[in-house]
Amino acid sequence: MRIVQQLIVAGVVILATASTLLAADRLKLSSTTSTDNTGLLAYLLPEFEARTGLQVDVIAVGTGKALKLAENGDVDVTLVHAPSSEKKFMDAGFGVNHHTIMANYFVIVGPEKDPAGVEAADSAEAAFRKIAERGSPFVSRGDNSGTHIKEQAIWKAVLGDLPSGKTWYLESGKGMGETLTIADEKMGYTLSDSGTFLKYSDNVDLKMLFVRPSDLLYNPYGIMAVNPEKQPHVNYEGAMKLIDFMTSGQGQKLIGAFADKLGNRLFTPLAGEQ
Amino acid sequence: MEYLLEAISQSLTLIVSLDPEIVTITLLSLRVAVSATLIAAILGVPIAYLVATREFMGKGALLTLFNTLMALPTVVVGLFCYSFLSRKGPLGFLDLLFTPSGIILGDVILAFPLIVGLTIAAVNAVDPRARTTAVSLGASPRQASVTILAEARFGLMAALFNGFGRVVAEVGSAMMLGGNIRGYTRTITTAIALETSKGEFAFGMALGIILLAVALSVNLTFRRFQARMN
């Protein structure tokens, strides 16, 4: 009985610690759930892993959390799409070597019937105004993500303030996929990045109603290495290898080739224009 | 409704085909839950025995505390551990965040009050004459404790199963401390959360069915082991 006890304890301790020993050459990347859900990382990273022998751990959470993890040094590199938050991050010295690697556009999606007449609107602001005037359900991310910040900027431009508290304005506090599901259920509108929507279009009855590239709806993705001066333990070398890969000709080509079932490109590679 | 039927058929397909990703996450869930339950039991059963069989000041308060901690929300445990395990926290140098060991740590904290509380109840339910009989037959304190725990074995088994059930089914702490990293810290429950957030309800449900199948297998294995011990 004693021996059994001791074996169990030993076995358990071994099991519990074995995995930490294997954490040797890993690179931790925090990104957003919408980026991860498009499948881009699952498509792009194996190529990088094969070349460098690094194992990339992707932690996909909300934008705010992704940046917080990077700030705390819990990851080595971060990829988000929130330019104003990225700028704050870089200005505070939490990140180094910022590169805008790709972009897509925000689109307004909604029910096929389009009761608010968004499709006919001649600008994103006009579309939002029509939704507000009609009081059609609009689902907001409500989570300080890049998409949420962008959506709030448009509301402020149109209404002078956020429509918080209005019965038609629903703040989900969730990721893009879930927000799309809610909008689908409520037969309402929402702002989405084109990449995520194209990925989810099979699961929802929503349609892209306002699809017009413009400065306002531009959605660039930035990658940043965690500042090794502030967080000396991070895998800075690995982070730079990833950034180099993402900005290289090969990496950019792969990003540009990533498409949905219908052949629609989800991201436009940009690093070549730096 | 159709997704429930789709879920059942999908779960059968996944189990039969032994889809490698499903196998990986199932084995991880099992490994993490069993490890955490065992560690919590090794720490908790002796403590529970001592609390149950001794009288001391504050015993009532301690019992109340254990019972209250059984209601700890899993995400709160995750947050609590994160504050310690993060690089910003005191235990950051251990590099436990976003590893299976980190998940195990959180799960031990979740299982511990449950196992202790239920073991105390199991020991208290043992006929007090068992102890006096053992002592009068010449048992040392350690031998007496083993006798009592053997008498309480059904309650003990229930305590362990409850602990196991709690941790194998939780998602809040595993998500926070593991990070749901594909192929590394993705458990059945964090995978269900992910698939559901992607709108893949049938797949999420199928994973849930697999989780129940795993719990059932563990249960049956243990019952066999228990029967053999008798």
Describe this structure in words.
- The complex is a heterodimer of chains A (274) and B (230).
- Chain A has 274 residues and is of the alpha/beta class.
- Chain A has two domains: 158 residues, Periplasmic binding protein-like II (D-Maltodextrin-Binding Protein, domain 2); 106 residues, Periplasmic binding protein-like II (D-Maltodextrin-Binding Protein, domain 2, 3-Layer(aba) Sandwich), CATH 3.40.190.
- In chain A, helix 6 packs across helix 7.
- The N and C termini of chain A lie far apart (68 Å).
- The model of chain A has no long low-confidence stretch (mean pLDDT 90).
- Chain B is mostly helical and 230 residues long.
- Chain B has one domain: MetI-like (MetI-like fold), CATH 1.10.3720.10.
- Chain B is 78% helix and 0% strand.
- Chain B is built from eleven helices and no strands.
- In chain B, helix 6 runs antiparallel to helix 7.
- Chains A and B meet through helix 1, strand 2 and helix 8 of A and helix 2 and helix 5 of B.
Write the SSE topology.
The complex is a heterodimer of chains A (274) and B (230).
Chain A: H1 2-21, E1 26-32, H2 33-37, H3 40-52, E2 55-61, H4 63-71, E3 77-80, H5 83-91, E4 95-110, H6 124-134, E5 138-140, H7 146-159, E6 169-171, H8 176-186, E7 189-193, H9 194-200, E8 207-210, E9 218-226, H10 236-247, H11 249-257, E10 268-269
Parallel strand pairs in A: 1-2, 1-3, 5-6, 5-7
Antiparallel strand pairs in A: 3-9, 4-7, 4-8, 4-9, 4-10
Chain B: H1 2-17, H2 20-53, H3 59-69, H4 74-85, H5 100-124, H6 128-136, H7 141-151, H8 153-168, H9 172-178, H10 188-197, H11 201-229
Attribute tags:
heterodimer; A: 274 residues; alpha/beta; D-Maltodextrin-Binding Protein, domain 2; 10-stranded mixed β-sheet; B: mainly alpha; MetI-like fold
